[in-house]
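User: I'm designing a mutation panel for small monomeric GTPase and want to avoid disrupting the core. Could you give me a predicted structure to guide residue selection? Please restate the sequence first so the numbering is unambiguous.

Assistant: Good idea. Sequence first, for numbering, then the predicted structure tokens:
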Amino acid sequence: MNSKSIRRKKSSLSEVKVAVIGAPGVGKTETRYKHEVLIDSEPILFEVLDTCPKNEDDLPSSEVLNWADGLLLVYSVIDRQTFAYVKKAGLILANCDIPVYLLANKCDMVHLRQVSYDEGSILARNFEWGFSEVAAAEQVAPVAAAFHDLCKAVLLYFLTIITPCRRTVQLK
């Protein structure tokens, strides 16, 4: 068998790059990883970049914004400064044409809550973002649901833009 007779099967996976953005202390780590999931019975390869700014003035870089297909903004409901961080990031992102999902973490710590559900919901609505509250340390499913919702928004965005961000060229 010669090398010309071997053909590589085209991958059926769609790829979605998500940057997780939030102030220090919201429940993130600085890592980059890939994960395959099914969204509406279609295999999707998530590439996740979990950013971790050094301080609250360290907003998302243009490099991160250009890399990502979608953004997951995370804040802690028990720390008002983390909410201020995502509000400030939102002002920057208002000029970016990219799907965004706002995720409030640590909602199980009701006795320490500093940011109400309504505040997060209103912020998300003002910027036309998706929104939910989770307790990431307690339950993984709501966090996964947020990623899935963001992924659906990214895939819909890919279908509606005139020139897709990534094109596949097949040579015959």
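For picking mutation sites, this is relevant: The longest strand covers residues 14-22. The two ends are 21 Å apart (CA to CA).
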